[in-house]
């Protein structure tokens, strides 16, 4: 992986494909979120994008980082040793459970809690609850029914009994990451229900999770952080700590995946442009089965073209029937590539060269 640093200007790209991260744009976006969420703790969910340059920008605005593995934990600790850290994940090993420097350990099951207690070490935990709440409009659900995440309310009661018989493991409250892809009104509705549950059990530290909606079909349609912040402050009662851990909605907009057209062809009446790179670098359109938004700079073209990558599979489709005029050598920019893009992709499938990484500073 090669990196270039270009201070104060858009980087010059010599080789395609490339990722370009806009750090000032990320800073502005995060500063706004921080402003709207006064009084609410924000942990950034590192699994959305663990790029160190991005974490360095976010570090100044977030209260902590949420990590989902021992790998993410040591990555973040190596660069930001003093930042509070929450460790999540449904399958923590004994080694992960005993990692030093974890501010909050999110416990996912009775088995995990028992292993933690048996280890004899002290820990500060939140219990991850899976409440049977309807989550309308979500793109992915991690709770609200039978999933491998967290504990249902009966199991939480069992966990409290286990915890009451010892004092090395201290429970501070609950963690509930139930769905992703929700807009602010739906998120607030869910928050009200999670808080009602928490209060009925005497919990005053509540992590409401991430999953704030982003729209790949309409990149301009943004999550309403102002409404969400105001709503959470209204919901919060004195003495309560409310925390959120968004990932995608924070970093998705600051990244672009930039490619060059290799070939343009018509097959059975449809136009295709084959570009350098593909879903082995940006798996997002394949996993979400969407069209990755394209930055259109020239005139709109009547005749649509489907943009595909270099892989020998029909799944390597980046964006279908885009109204742009492209010829070999042209550069195409895919937007919204700052989260769940490079780091969730199968980079070595077909052994093409990895992209270069550029940063606008
Ligand atoms: C993935 C994840 C998040 C972040 O979700 P986004 O949709 O990226 O905001 C937060 N919390 C937990 C427990 C997660 O697994």
UniProtKB/TrEMBL annotation:
<dbReference type="Pfam" id="PF02784">
    <property type="entry name" value="Orn_Arg_deC_N"/>
</dbReference>
<keyword id="KW-0663">Pyridoxal phosphate</keyword>
<comment type="similarity">
    <text>Belongs to the Orn/Lys/Arg decarboxylase class-II family.</text>
</comment>
<dbReference type="InterPro" id="IPR022644">
    <property type="entry name" value="De-COase2_N"/>
</dbReference>
<dbReference type="Pfam" id="PF00278">
    <property type="entry name" value="Orn_DAP_Arg_deC"/>
</dbReference>
<dbReference type="InterPro" id="IPR029066">
    <property type="entry name" value="PLP-binding_barrel"/>
</dbReference>
<feature type="domain" description="Orn/DAP/Arg decarboxylase 2 N-terminal">
    <location>
        <begin position="26"/>
        <end position="251"/>
    </location>
</feature>
<dbReference type="InterPro" id="IPR009006">
    <property type="entry name" value="Ala_racemase/Decarboxylase_C"/>
</dbReference>
<dbReference type="InterPro" id="IPR022643">
    <property type="entry name" value="De-COase2_C"/>
</dbReference>
<protein>
    <submittedName>
        <fullName>Type III PLP-dependent enzyme</fullName>
    </submittedName>
</protein>
<feature type="domain" description="Orn/DAP/Arg decarboxylase 2 C-terminal">
    <location>
        <begin position="19"/>
        <end position="338"/>
    </location>
</feature>
<dbReference type="InterPro" id="IPR000183">
    <property type="entry name" value="Orn/DAP/Arg_de-COase"/>
</dbReference>
